[in-house]
Structures are given as C-alpha cells and as structure tokens.
Amino acid sequence: MISLRSLALVAVTSLALAACGRGSSTVALELTDAPVTLSAVEKIEISFGKVEVESGHSCGGGDKDGARAGRERGGEWTTVNENAGTFDLLSLRDGVTAPLGEVEVWGEVQAIRLQIDAAGTNQVIMKDGTVCALDTTGVTEASLRIAEGAEALSLERGGRTTIVVDFIAEESIEEVSACNFKLAPVLAIKSVTHADDDA
C-alpha cells in the first residue's frame, strides 16, 4: 500500500497512469475507507471540494526513463466535480464506495487531485453523540504515485476505468486532546478496474 501523510489546505492524490494513443477513455473516481478500530467514534465527516484529473499525450517511449520523462511533462487539468460534497468515511467500508464523479479524457491520465473543503463540514462524532472538532488547517499536498520503475497502469481506449481511492481514516485522524482531532490524510489506491463501454 502506497501512502503519504499531508501538511495544509489541499489533499492531492497524484496517480501516474500511462496510456499512449489518442482514443478517449472515461475515468470514474470513487472513495472508500479501510476498516478501522476507532471504537469510540461513530462518524468521521470530511468535505471535499473540487476534484480534478490531469490528462495529456505525453508518451515517452517503451523504456522506463522515457515513460518517466513523458509523465514529467504534465498535461491539462480537467474538473471532474466542482463540489464533491461531505462523506462519512466510516460508512465507506466493507466494499462500499461513494462516487466522486467521472470525466472523459484523451491520451493518458497523469494525476488526480482532491481538495479538502476547509469551510465545509469536517468533524468527528463520537458514539455518545458528542460532536468534536476536526482540524484541517494543517493539511497541504499529499500524493500517491506509482513507484519509479513499476509497471504503468493503462487506460482502455474507448472504455471505462474506475479508480477507487482509499482514505484510511484510522491513520488519517489524530486525537490531539479530548474531543479535538487533527486531519493528516493517508491515502492509497484501493483498486483500478477496466470495462468496455459496450459491456
């Protein structure tokens, strides 16, 4: 599992994906959470703002150095969702996911960006009904990227690729003091699945 803790107002999930060619593909993003053992916590509510994907045609060739150079050239950011909304992470377990949106892209998808909405509902609700503050002011960019030299994840031209992002609540929430929690996102790619549009 690949994960990286974050530090200010935006949680960014960066995913290196390669798919050479000029056919378009649909990319669907979903959110889930790994099982947790926060026995006293009933809900962890986090608000997401804009969701974006970066796509382009930066194919760098067949070797690892070429592929890496292609990814580094970047591409164009496309908005998947202007305001993804508020989610209870603890309800997204045991195979349950929540859609973040989908968009059709051309070429390769190079990155995914999720913004934490600091002005939205960000809180922890205890099992006794107490509502506790969830501090998001220390959140900055966090990234998920396939390790250098790993096999690239290809998009199916003309098909649909679903990427499930795992927001690991148990590792992302720190109890600083009584009823005072701090957000430090730990993210992972749960799964990547491909399907033909005609299937």
Alpha-carbon distance between the two ends: 30 Å
User: Beta-strand level of the residues, as a percent range?
Assistant: over 45%
The number of helical elements comes to 2
Q: Cα-atom Rg, whole angstroms? A: 17 Å
Task: Describe the 3D structure.
The protein has 199 residues and is mainly beta. The chain has one domain. The chain contains two helices and twelve strands. Strands 2, 3, 4, 6, 7, 8, 10 and 11 form an eight-stranded mixed β-sheet that branches. A four-stranded mixed β-sheet has the order 5-1-9-12, with no helix packed on it. β7 and β8 form a beta hairpin. The longest helix has 9 residues. It is elongated and about 55 Å long. The chain starts with 23 loop residues before the first strand and ends with a strand.
